[in-house]
Amino acid sequence: MIFFESLLGSIGLVFWLVCFIIRKQAISIKYYKKRVGIWKREAEIDIDKLKEVIDMAVQNSSHFFPKFKELYPYFCERLIEIQPNVVASEQEFCAYIKLGFTTKEIAKFTNSSIRSIEGKKYRIRRKYNINEKVDIYVWAANL
């Protein structure tokens, strides 16, 4: 009798484990399909348009962020999805980070101090719950 109860419990445990693994794999597949879609869109980005957006960022043009949003429409959507109360200026700052500009470059382009840019990075980290060990540039690239 104890043998059958142990056997039944083991079968139940194995069944639960298999279901858990299958569900985890389905979630992983869904996630990677979404990432592949984003990577395809990024691969299709026109280099000339990217250069134009970077030039606008360097010149601190008022047309920079609207052009960036045309080039990376999913990026701002993802920022809003993660944090619905994100402000446009924070989105624009994240755009600079997405393009890979350093703190000094962002300060120079936006006519701000390095300290204020560091403060903005800190506030973005806090708002989006980004761990200090995570590189903010890698985080922005993976959105």
How would you portray this structure in words?
This protein has 143 residues and is mostly helical. It is 77% helix and 0% strand. It contains eight helices and no strands. The chain has helices at residues 2-43, 47-58, 64-71, 73-82, 88-98, 103-109, 114-127, 136-141. The chain is elongated. The relative contact order is 0.07. The mean pLDDT is 81.
Which assembly state applies to the chains in this document?
Answer: single chain
- Outline type: elongated
Question: How many angstroms does the end-to-end distance come to?
Answer: 55 Å
Percent range for β-strand residues: under 5%
Report low-confidence residues grouped into runs of 5 or more: none
Question: How much helix is in the residues?
Answer: over 70%
Whole-angstrom Rg: 22 Å
Secondary-structure element string = HHHHHHHH
Overall mean pLDDT: 81
Supply the helix-strand structural class.
Answer: mainly alpha
Describe the biggest sheet?
none
- How many distinct beta strands? 0
Number of helices: 8
Summarize the structure.
By secondary structure, the chain is an all-alpha fold. The protein has 8 helices and no strands.
Notable characteristics:
8 helices, elongated, mainly alpha, 143 residues, single chain
Topology readout:
Blueprint: H1 2-43, H2 47-58, H3 64-71, H4 73-82, H5 88-98, H6 103-109, H7 114-127, H8 136-141
